[in-house]
């Protein structure tokens, strides 16, 4: 009998598009930031607070989004999130004062990102995929890299038509595409449409034979976590701290990378293109790391990726117009591929440990520190430059954060092996 089409692939495609929006939004601020500095002549730490408000709002929204997801599902939450991001961008395109950017780009878009980013993607894919969980998350996370790749297009729009038009078109594109797609095609779990995770099928008893594909009753054992269990567990607090490092390190690169390269004397389009190439490296990287971690283990895969990311950040600190071209290529390869492991491996590790009916709420609680870290990183990068005239201390903080994240994931996986081997 021919195997029916597995709808989980549609879910991965939708998550890919949502994550692509997140990647474009986060990385595009790097070029919008330069335009805002030229338009309003604000200190760098001031313009960076726009992204900080976005991060704080995301942080506050994440547990709320997780709670609503577990009760309403992705078909309600994800169109709402995309709509808020689109409206926030449209309103920001007409802003002329700092508080207006805080409202549109910070609050509205921050609430929207909290609905569609890490919380929603991890929750919905963890229901549709079990054995190939990290692989599926890796394919969805490829959207983050593609989102970064389009940043030079945003810069071209800014150069040709101004930042207001570029921001308006960005918002309109989100409202016209992602909102209806998510409303029409999102589904919470495979059982809702008569399917099983990973596309498995259960044969009728009389049809079962030596070659029949069946799913054992306890194919995917797990414990049902209570919130008391979660809050008293080591991996929750380890990942909670690690999320702070992920948010801080990510925001430093996405918010200040272009400004750093422009400060060293590189042209704006060239600087945006370097960040775009990082996104291009992420596209295959997320899928590769997801596949590798499903087969070789989360810990080994994440250890190699962390070494690559640390090397890439160290090299980035030395980049400038006079640097050899191969230095740029090495940075793109090392940081782009190394950083791309964080989304699939981090998400899969959380789902491996905490999967159950409250998974989205738990992921939302963990995302609190990601948003706080994102807000801290965006502000600190601008503050460090205003005080020292250099981004050196920002990149030193990024190095520390990358190492911190590995320690937290490493500790969580050791805990899982020793105290909860039945989780996977």
Q: What do these coordinates show?
A:
The chain has 424 residues and is mainly α. The protein has one domain: Growth Hormone, Chain: A. Helices cover 78% and strands 0% of the residues. The protein is built from 16 helices and no strands. It has helices at residues 8-40, 44-72, 74-92, 98-116, 118-128, 133-149, 151-161, 163-185, 227-231, 234-263, 268-296, 298-316, 325-339, 342-354, 359-388, 392-419. The chain is globular, with a radius of gyration of 21 Å. Mean pLDDT is 85; it is low at 204-221.
List the helices and strands and how they pair.
Elements: H1 8-40, H2 44-72, H3 74-92, H4 98-116, H5 118-128, H6 133-149, H7 151-161, H8 163-185, H9 227-231, H10 234-263, H11 268-296, H12 298-316, H13 325-339, H14 342-354, H15 359-388, H16 392-419
Concise synopsis of the structure shown:
With 424 residues, the protein is mainly alpha-helical. Helix content is 78%, strand content 0%. It has 16 helices and no strands.
- The helix fraction, in percent, is over 70%
Ends apart, CA distance between termini: 31 Å
CATH superfamily: MFS general substrate transporter like domains
| CATH top level label | Mainly Alpha
| Sheet with most strands | none
Global structural class: mainly alpha
What fold name goes in the CATH topology slot?
Growth Hormone, Chain: A
Quick one: how many beta strands?
0
CATH architecture: Up-down Bundle
Uncertain parts: 204-221
How many individual helices? 16
Kindly state the mean pLDDT as a whole number? Answer: 85
Cα-atom radius of gyration: 21 Å
Strand and helix order: HHHHHHHHHHHHHHHH
Tally of structural domains: 1
Give the overall form: globular
Q: Report the sheet-strand fraction.
A: under 5%
């Amino acid at each position: 009998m021919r195997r029916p089409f597995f709808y989980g692939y549609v879910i991965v495609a939708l998550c890919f598009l949502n994550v692509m929006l997140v990647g474009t939004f986060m990385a595009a601020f790097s070029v919008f930031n330069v335009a805002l500095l030229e338009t309003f002549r604000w200190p760098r730490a001031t313009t960076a607070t726009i992204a900080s408000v976005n991060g704080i709002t995301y942080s506050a929204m994440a547990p709320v989004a997780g709670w609503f997801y577990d009760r309403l599902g992705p078909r309600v939450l994800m169109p709402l999130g995309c709509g808020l991001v689109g409206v926030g961008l449209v309103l920001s395109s007409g802003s002329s004062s700092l508080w207006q950017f805080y409202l549109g780009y910070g609050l509205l878009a921050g609430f929207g990102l909290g609905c569609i980013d890490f919380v929603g993607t991890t929750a919905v894919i963890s229901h549709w995929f079990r054995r190939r969980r990290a692989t599926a998350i890796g394919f969805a996370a490829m959207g983050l890299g593609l989102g970064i790749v389009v940043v030079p297009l945003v810069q071209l729009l800014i150069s040709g038509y101004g930042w207001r038009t570029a921001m308006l078109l960005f918002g309109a594109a989100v409202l016209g595409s992602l909102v209806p797609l998510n409303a029409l095609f999102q589904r919470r779990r495979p059982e809702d449409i008569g399917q099983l995770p990973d596309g498995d099928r259960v044969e009728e008893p009389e049809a079962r034979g030596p070659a029949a594909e069946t799913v054992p009753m306890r194919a995917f054992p797990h414990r049902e976590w209570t919130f008391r269990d979660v809050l008293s567990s080591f991996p929750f607090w380890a990942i909670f701290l690690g999320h702070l490092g992920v948010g801080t390190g990510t925001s430093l690169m996405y918010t200040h990378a272009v400004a750093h390269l422009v400060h060293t004397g590189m042209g704006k389009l060239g600087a945006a293109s370097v960040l775009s190439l990082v996104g291009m490296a992420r596209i295959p990287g997320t899928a590769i790391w997801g596949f590798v971690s499903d087969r070789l283990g989360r810990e080994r895969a994440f250890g190699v990726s962390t070494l690559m990311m640390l090397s890439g950040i160290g090299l980035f600190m030395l980049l400038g117009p006079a640097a050899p071209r191969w230095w740029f290529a090495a940075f793109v390869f090392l940081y782009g591929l190394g950083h791309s492991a964080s989304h699939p491996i981090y998400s899969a590790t959380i789902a491996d440990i905490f999967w159950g009916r409250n998974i989205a709420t738990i992921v939302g609680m963990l995302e609190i520190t990601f948003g706080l870290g994102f807000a801290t990183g965006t502000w600190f990068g601008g503050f460090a430059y205003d005080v020292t005239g250099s981004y050196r201390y920002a990149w030193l903080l990024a190095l520390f954060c990358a190492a911190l994240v590995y320690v937290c994931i490493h500790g969580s996986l050791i805990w899982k092996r020793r105290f909860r081997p039945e989780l996977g």
